[in-house]
């Protein structure tokens, strides 16, 4: 297992995909914080800053690293079959399961590092806006990274399935991009529209009911978008009162406890995708 | 050393191996000859468990690694420690240098550090890549990649070397060097099993040649007998040019005129002397005469009949 890990880790760190996507993401962080500061970020409360940080990292890292994860997974196996490196590797005394296990471990570590990088930049941003660096902040940020890591693993695993199904890595890459487009842009918007329609049918809904409806729709219609499931959870880290004046911060452990179904969906699908991806690899012709 | 019985492999709609039988004995240099698409790579990939055949048996070092449609992965991993494999149409990791490549391959065999370094140096010398040891493989030519692929196959000093079209794409010097390396392996008591679609590649070095056509082994013998058999089956074509037109009808041979004084004679055996005498008896003279050996493709086609 460590052999496969070692090889894949080196390989992943040298792919252009990784650095291009991370680069774009970090570049986008800078104007966002700058704008917030210039429109009055100085009055930001601690709770507000933390809630913002968590939502922001979920959105940005979820989107960019999510695409990265899907692309990484979708070309992980087929490109190595094309090049022939997989035939060289698997002609050595290495079990298939240890090889794919090592590869998966390496991908997970790379994605975790990418998430941590985006988190560190995010923390630097809110500290710059004036929020203090508390132990609660650190704890929640680490928890958030765990949640996002599960989401990223789910996307890598979905990529593995694509990689074992589509022989040409070029086509698989295209397929993964289309899928990312559908998962991150089209479907969330469609569901957003459905929610909007449901709300306009019931004009006198309370704020609480509204929030719940949105969550229910996301749970039901976006169960296959792991980052949306994480968003449902992270939305509950804080609540804002009706006239949007005060933000009360409850913390991520509270938010996770409140949304066991979404956590279940997140973990369940991840395990299922990984199982299918590994199973297919174990029985696959490597030519 | 390697024994394959009734191997069947069907890709979606193509039957690539149709009950293949083959045996490589210890110490042999075995040439696995066949036209493109005959099933050579399929056989080799099956042997190493890189693809999954449907039926048959595969034994390596008397260990049964494939039977009843299943590989025994634990046994397979164990025997792979004693095997070196060089794939067809492959590249190695572009971002590594030859030294790094061989280092990582050596790690798959848990070769201790000191021994590893020594072995890497030896192998780079052997395949002539010493001067390029620290250049990225991504910048290598096809021939250099081929050399590195051979080096990685030798890293564990394997008892059995399995090479898929190792000489394809090499220039004549490269082929000569390659054959020399294979001979060295034989001297060291190793067994070599390699495939090719070119007759010249198996010449001079193989003890045994197996010919595969359309997924079946058609003959397994030494090269001389196979060639004789080939020629007998494929027949001879004799091209003759005479000083005056000749009437061939009394000869009873199968003659096709190619021009006014040029003819092609198809025969089952070498009848050059007979042709000479016949032309003389017709009062003519032979200006040129040549025997055209059948091309390998023609021979392969005959083998299927
Ligand atoms: N992945 C594949 N899918 C379908 N057919 C294949 C595949 N790989 C090889 N074949 C077919 O199997 C046959 C044997 O191929 P191969 O073993 O590569 O032959 P050789 O190595 O002797 O040139 C050919 O007809 C080839 O087209
Ligand atoms: Mg081949």
Outline of chain A, from the CA principal axes?
Answer: globular
Largest interface: A-B, 23 and 30 residues
**Count of runs of 4 or more consecutive helical residues of chain A:** 12
Quickly count the domains of chain B: 2
CATH class of the largest domain in chain B: Alpha Beta
The 3D shape of chain B can be described as: elongated
SSE class of chain A: mainly alpha
Strand order of the largest sheet of chain B: 7-8-9-3-10-11
CATH architecture title of the largest domain in chain B? 3-Layer(aba) Sandwich
Give the number of DSSP strands of chain A.
Answer: 2
Q: What is the domain tally of chain A?
A: 1
In short:
Chain A has twelve helices and two strands, in the order H-H-H-H-H-H-H-H-H-H-E-E-H-H.
Overview of this protein structure:
The complex is a heterodimer of chains A (287) and B (305). With 287 residues, chain A is mainly α. Chain A has one domain (2-282). Chain A is 79% helix and 2% strand. Chain A has 12 helices and 2 strands. A two-stranded antiparallel sheet of chain A has the order 1-2. The mean pLDDT of chain A is 90. Chain B has 305 residues and is of the alpha/beta class. Chain B has 2 domains: 2-221, P-loop containing nucleotide triphosphate hydrolases (Rossmann fold), CATH 3.40.50.300; 228-304, Alpha-L RNA-binding motif (Alpha-Beta Plaits), CATH 3.30.70.1560. In chain B, 34% of the residues lie in helices and 29% in strands. Chain B has helices at 40-47, 73-80, 98-108, 113-126, 142-154, 172-187, 199-202, 223-234, 272-281, 296-304; strands at residues 2-11, 14-24, 29-33, 55-60, 63-67, 70-71, 83-86, 160-163, 191-196, 208-213, 216-221, 236-242, 254-257, 262-267, 286-292. A 6-stranded mixed sheet of chain B has the order 7-8-9-3-10-11, with helices on both faces. A 5-stranded antiparallel sheet of chain B has the order 2-1-4-5-6. In chain B, strand 8, helix 6 and strand 9 (191-196) form a beta-alpha-beta unit. In chain B, helix 3 packs across helix 4 (113-126). The longest helix of chain B is centred in the middle third of the chain and has 16 residues, at 172-187. The mean pLDDT of chain B is 91. Classes of the chains: A mainly alpha (287), B alpha/beta (305). The interface between A and B is medium-sized, with 23 and 30 residues. The structure holds adenosine-5'-diphosphate and magnesium ion (MG). Magnesium ion (MG) binds next to helix 1 of chain B. Adenosine-5'-diphosphate binds next to strand 2 and helix 1 of chain B.
């Amino acid at each position: 297992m460590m052999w496969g890990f070692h090889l894949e880790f080196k390989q992943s760190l040298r792919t252009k995909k990784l650095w291009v996507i991370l680069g774009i993401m970090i570049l986008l962080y800078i104007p966002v914080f700058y704008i917030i500061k210039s429109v009055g970020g100085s009055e930001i409360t601690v709770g507000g800053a933390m809630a913002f940080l968590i939502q922001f990292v979920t959105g940005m890292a979820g989107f960019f690293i999510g695409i990265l994860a899907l692309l990484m997974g979708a070309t992980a196996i087929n490109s190595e079959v094309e090049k022939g490196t997989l035939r060289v590797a698997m002609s050595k005394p290495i079990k298939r399961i240890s090889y794919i296990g090592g590869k998966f471990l390496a991908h997970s570590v790379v994605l975790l590092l990418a998430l941590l990088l985006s988190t560190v930049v995010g923390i630097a941003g809110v500290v710059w806006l004036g929020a203090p660096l508390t132990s609660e902040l650190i704890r929640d940020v680490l928890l958030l990274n765990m949640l996002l890591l599960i989401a990223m693993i789910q996307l890598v695993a979905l990529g593995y399935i694509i990689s074992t199904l589509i022989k040409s890595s070029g086509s698989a890459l295209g397929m993964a991009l289309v899928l990312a487009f559908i998962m991150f842009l089209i479907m969330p918007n469609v569901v957003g529209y459905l929610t909007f329609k449901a709300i306009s049918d019931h004009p006198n809904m309370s704020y609480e009911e509204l929030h719940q409806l949105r969550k229910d729709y996301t749970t039901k219609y976006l169960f296959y978008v792991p980052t949306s499931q994480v968003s449902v959870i992270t939305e509950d880290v804080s609540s804002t009162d009706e006239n949007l004046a005060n933000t009360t911060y409850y913390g991520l452990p509270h938010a996770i406890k409140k949304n066991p179904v979404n956590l279940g969906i997140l973990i369940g699908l991840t395990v299922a995708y990984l199982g299918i991806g590994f199973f297919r690899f174990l029985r696959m012709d490597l030519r | 050393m390697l024994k394959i019985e009734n191997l069947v492999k069907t890709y979606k709609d193509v039957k690539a191996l149709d009950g293949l039988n083959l045996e490589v004995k210890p110490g042999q240099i075995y040439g696995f000859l066949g036209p493109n698409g005959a099933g050579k790579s399929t056989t080799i990939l099956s042997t190493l468990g890189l693809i999954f055949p449907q039926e048959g048996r595969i034994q390596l070092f008397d260990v049964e690694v494939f039977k009843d449609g299943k590989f025994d992965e634990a046994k397979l991993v164990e025997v792979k420690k004693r095997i070196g494999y060089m794939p067809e149409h492959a590249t190695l990791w572009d971002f590594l240098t030859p030294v790094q490549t061989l280092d990582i391959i050596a790690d798959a065999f848990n070769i201790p550090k000191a021994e590893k370094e020594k072995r890497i140096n030896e192998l780079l010398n052997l395949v002539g890549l010493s001067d390029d040891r620290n250049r990225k493989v991504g910048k290598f030519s096809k021939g250099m990649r081929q050399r590195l692929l051979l080096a990685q196959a030798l890293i564990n000093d394997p008892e059995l070397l399995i090479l898929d079209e190792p000489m394809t794409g090499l220039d004549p010097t490269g082929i000569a060097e390659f054959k020399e390396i294979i001979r060295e392996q034989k001297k060291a008591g190793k067994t070599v099993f390699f495939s090719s679609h070119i007759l010249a590649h198996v010449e001079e070095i193989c003890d045994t040649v197996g010919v595969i056509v359309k997924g079946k082994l058609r003959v397994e013998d030494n090269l001389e007998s196979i060639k004789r058999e080939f020629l007998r089956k494929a027949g001879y074509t004799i091209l003759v040019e005479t000083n005056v037109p000749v009437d061939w009808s009394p000869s009873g041979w199968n003659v096709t005129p190619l021009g006014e004084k040029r003819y092609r004679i198809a025969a089952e055996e070498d009848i050059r002397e007979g042709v000479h005498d016949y032309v003389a008896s017709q009062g003519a003279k032979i200006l040129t005469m040549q025997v055209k050996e059948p091309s390998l493709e023609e021979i392969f086609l005959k083998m299927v009949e």
